[in-house]
């Protein structure tokens, strides 16, 4: 409730995305959510498409270490994605997260997000910023030893 319930005095204002355990194709990069946020912040479809392609490529750890993929992804998250939408045009930067105006970002959470890959896992809560998974929360009962 502290994350999503505006009636709570110290609510963090996250949007509740529901229980996603039966939702297909859950990913660490939820492109529809990211597209919507970038469009709302004024980026063109061409800029968004180019930025998403570069982000997906950076996050892919095929053939490189996980550390290298994480570093590439971090740099895009922190400093933005340089995109060029037409030959001869200057590069522009698409900021996946608006660090200057945090209220322009979409903070959301989903429960029981089933992720499939090499093996299936289901974290209790995933926190998203603009459709990008930023944190995983595993809940445990205090009565369980």
TrEMBL record:
Matching Pfam families: HSDR_N
Enzyme class at the top of the EC tree: hydrolase
EC number(s) from the headed UniProt entry: 3.1.21.3
CDD domains for this protein: HsdR_N
Single GO term (MF): DNA binding
Catalytic activity: Endonucleolytic cleavage of DNA to give random double-stranded fragments with terminal 5'-phosphates, ATP is simultaneously hydrolyzed
Keyword vocabulary terms for this entry: ATP-binding, DNA-binding, Endonuclease, Hydrolase, Nuclease, Nucleotide-binding, Restriction system
Domain spans labelled Restriction endonuclease type I HsdR N-terminal: 11-143
Keyword rRNA processing attributed: no
Record's protein name: type I site-specific deoxyribonuclease
Family: Belongs to the HsdR family.
InterPro entries according to UniProt: Restrct_endonuc_type1_HsdR_N, Type-I_R_enzyme_R_subunit
Transmembrane segments: none
GO biological process, one term: DNA restriction-modification system
């Amino acid at each position: 409730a502290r994350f999503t319930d505006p009636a709570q005095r110290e609510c963090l204002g996250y949007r509740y995305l529901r229980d996603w355990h039966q939702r297909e194709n859950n990913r660490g990069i939820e492109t529809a959510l990211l597209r919507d946020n970038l469009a709302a912040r004024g980026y063109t479809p061409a800029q968004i498409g180019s930025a998403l392609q570069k982000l997906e490529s950076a996050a892919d750890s095929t053939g490189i270490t996980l550390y290298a993929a994480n570093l590439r992804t971090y740099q895009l998250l922190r400093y933005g994605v340089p995109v060029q939408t037409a030959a001869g045009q200057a590069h522009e930067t698409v900021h996946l997260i608006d660090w200057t105006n945090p209220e322009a970002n979409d903070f959301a959470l989903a429960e029981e997000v089933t992720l499939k890959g090499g093996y299936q896992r289901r974290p209790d809560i995933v926190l998203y910023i603009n459709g990008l998974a930023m944190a995983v929360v595993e809940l445990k009962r205090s009565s369980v030893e």
